[in-house]
Structure formats: structure tokens, C-alpha cells
Amino acid sequence: MRTVLMPLMLSGAKMLDKHCPRCGSPLFEKDGRVFCPICEHRKKQRQAEMRGVEERLLEKLNELANSLPDEIDELEKHLRAMEKIIELLEKYRKLEGGG
Ligand SMILES: [Zn+2]
């Protein structure tokens, strides 16, 4: 975790005497804000991963929307797939917001 902590210390953040209740790493303070660099780093990583998934899902959704078949059975399959993607996107967005 040195790679997370070093730039932080160089940026003028102050290492506190307290530890993060979640991961046990030392807490830092900068501009009056106390935070855990490890948890923040993980959160950012997770958000980046989620954005990647979200982008791919949106791409697929676009693809499906742009190629709707005329045949009714096929159309139904298409729409069902689109519905699932939209459901997934909503779930991902909730996860992201609650993180
Ligand atoms: Zn932490």
C-alpha cells in the first residue's frame, strides 16, 4: 500500500494517531478532512471497475436497440435482453451510489 500512502504524504496530508475501523490502516487528514486512503483507493477502484461494466452494458444496449428484428419472436427476445441489461444497470447504479 506504499504506492497509495507515499504520494499522499508528499501532498501534505497528515498521518493521524487513529486507525480506520474498517481496514486498520492509519487515517489521514488534509484540508480539515479525515479519511482512510486505503478505503478511498479501494472505493475508487471499484467505481472504475463498475464504470467499465456499465459502459459495456450500455454499448450492448445500444447495439440491441439499433438492430431490432421485425420477426415478433426475435423482437421479443431482443426486448427481453434489453430489459435485463436495464435492470443490471439499475443495480449497478445503486451499488455505486451506496458504496
Ligand atoms: Zn480503511
From TrEMBL:
<dbReference type="Pfam" id="PF06677">
    <property type="entry name" value="Auto_anti-p27"/>
</dbReference>
<dbReference type="InterPro" id="IPR009563">
    <property type="entry name" value="SSSCA1"/>
</dbReference>
<feature type="coiled-coil region">
    <location>
        <begin position="58"/>
        <end position="95"/>
    </location>
</feature>
<keyword id="KW-0175">Coiled coil</keyword>
<protein>
    <recommendedName>
        <fullName>HPt domain-containing protein</fullName>
    </recommendedName>
</protein>
